Each structure stands twice: as structure tokens, then as C-alpha cells.
Amino acid sequence: MRALAWEDDYDERLPMLMKRSSLRSGAGHLVRLVWLGFGLLALGLGIVGVFLPLLPTTPLVLLAAFAFTKGSPRLRGMLVGHRIFGPIIADWEASGAIAPRYKIAACTAMAAILCVSVIMDLSATIIAVQAICLGTAALFVLTRPH
């Protein structure tokens, strides 16, 4: 006697069904939520960085795109398709490139932060640590291809 039609390929579909259910399971779902939250936080800080020069927008947007890859492909697609952020992400993913205008903006912001610290008369130790960190970041930015 023949089994019901849906039973014919049940054994073949079993790994696919198990895979789907495991994505919805607690651990997998929790990991996706963590990546999603991390991406939203990075994107939010990146947007704030557009208006506040203390936060670097480009690295935060790149970080958000990476996190959305693991947490929400739909949000990643929206970010990559964005008219401003999309080209930045595409250039970075294609060749690790940073456009010259973003290099200038990043280095200017880093220099401004260091100048503000000097003007505020912060301790020499804090200024030295800032100078080392910002100098290293500027060196990285400046050595990226165009």
C-alpha cells in the first residue's frame, strides 16, 4: 500500500525541516537578536556621529553592516542600498577603500578632538594616550586605498 503523498519525500526533507526549526530555536534566535541589537547600536551611534564629530560615522556604519549580515539580512540590504552609506560599504567590501573626502573628514575630526583636549588642559598622560590612539587610527585611514 502506498504512503500518503506528503510522506514520499519526508525523509529527504527532514534535514531541511530540522535546519529551519533550529534557526528558530532559542540559541540561534538569541544570537541573531544579539547581532541585530549590536548592529542597531552601531548604526545609531554612526548616525549621531554625522552631527557629533566625536563619533566616527564610517567605521560604525561598516560595523553595523557586518552585524546586520549575521542579525538581519533585510536591514543589511537597506543599509547597502542607502544612497549615502551604500557606496561607503561597497567600496570597503570591494577593496578596503576609503574615499579621499572621508579620509580628510576623519583625520580632521581626530585632529580637532586632540586640539580640544589640549585646549581643555587635560593631563599630559591623557593627551599622550589620545595622540597615540588617534595617530594610529589616522595612519590606518590614510593607508587605505582610494
Please outline the helices and strands:
Blueprint: H1 5-8, H2 10-23, H3 26-51, H4 57-71, H5 73-80, H6 85-95, H7 100-119, H8 124-143
Helix pairs in contact: 3-4, 4-5, 4-6, 7-8
What does this molecule look like?
The chain has 146 residues and is an all-alpha fold. Helix content is 81%, strand content 0%. It is built from 8 helices and no strands. The chain is globular, with a radius of gyration of 23 Å.
Task: Name the features.
146 residues, disordered N terminus, mainly alpha, globular
Morphology: globular
Strand content: under 5%
The CA-CA distance between the termini, in Å, is 69 Å
Radius of gyration over all CA atoms, rounded: 23 Å
Structural class: mainly alpha
Query: Biggest sheet, open or closed, and with what strands and sense?
Result: none
Low-confidence stretches: 1-11, 13-19
Number of strands: 0
Task: State the gist of this model.
The protein is an all-alpha fold and 146 residues long.
